[in-house]
Amino acid sequence: MSMSLKYSVGDLTIHRVIEQETSFVPALEMLPGLTPEVLTENRAWMRQAKALDDNDVLLLCFQSYVVKTPHHTILIDSCIGNDKPRPNRPKWNMKTDDTYLGALGAAGFSPGDIDFVMCTHLHVDHVGWNTRLENGRWVPTFPKARYVFAKQEFDHWSAQNAKTEIPPFVDSVLPVVEAKRHEFVGNDHQIGDHVRILPTPGHTPGHIAITVGRGKDDAVFSGDLMHSPLQTLYPELSIKFDVDPAKAATTRRSFLERYCDTETLCCTAHFPSPSVGKIRRKGNAFVCAAV
Ligand SMILES: [Zn+2]
């Protein structure tokens, strides 16, 4: 498989940093609105695209993106992480591999090179490398970075965590705040003239997409507003982890319409490699076409 890991657009370079690309959850379980008939209609191309395995389990990529602007190096979504107790996900539980930091290094970056970390939302597979274990304590992995959290998203998980402890919030978000490396921002926040926030609620209440480019959206990082290319063809299909499935569906269609037939590079969090493409119309729906 040819694997594109680097894209140049405008005055930016974008690198994919892959931690895992693997089977995740059966399609019919992950997408409660998906019927066996629709799955059957789409099985051939999904298998061809490595979006579905031989047992109809969705294949997902878990990755960060590193964006280099003329001024800053920004890491978007920090994946799964090491040494974290995740008993419900054997592939993520107490991991000790060097895949992620190795991939970061192969892209030409050390943790100390990252100026900003941004999370599209605060789910387990988007915050993991925010911290690493050092002498029994969780410390920021990226020692010089400011970690940019959407205030609305942080407040949501803070309230949830107060009711029932949420381990990834406790081990991968709160230690950043305790180390005072955080910034809580509203949706009007920008970094220089290259990085902006696009509110995309539904998967979580404070979910954001992140748009980059000087004066125009050269690229957009869509986070978890969609997980499988099947959802570009059927934008009404929400996943079982969407906090508000109806809003997620509305957000997904309006996002796809916004970028349809534009030159904006859509960098998805979880689509199978190459994960990146341009949104194109197909009938009453869309595809993310590889570039
Ligand atoms: Zn995710």
TrEMBL record:
CDD domains: metallo-hydrolase-like_MBL-fold
SUPFAM superfamilies: Metallo-hydrolase/oxidoreductase
UniProt-listed Pfam families: Lactamase_B
Superkingdom, taxonomy of origin: Bacteria
Key words, A-Z: Hydrolase, Metal-binding, Zinc
A GO MF label: metal ion binding
Domain Metallo-beta-lactamase: 64-270
SMART domains: Lactamase_B
Protein family membership: Belongs to the metallo-beta-lactamase superfamily.
Protein name: Blr7893 protein
Organism: Bradyrhizobium diazoefficiens (strain JCM 10833 / BCRC 13528 / IAM 13628 / NBRC 14792 / USDA 110)
Taxonomic placement: Bacteria, Pseudomonadati, Pseudomonadota, Alphaproteobacteria, Hyphomicrobiales
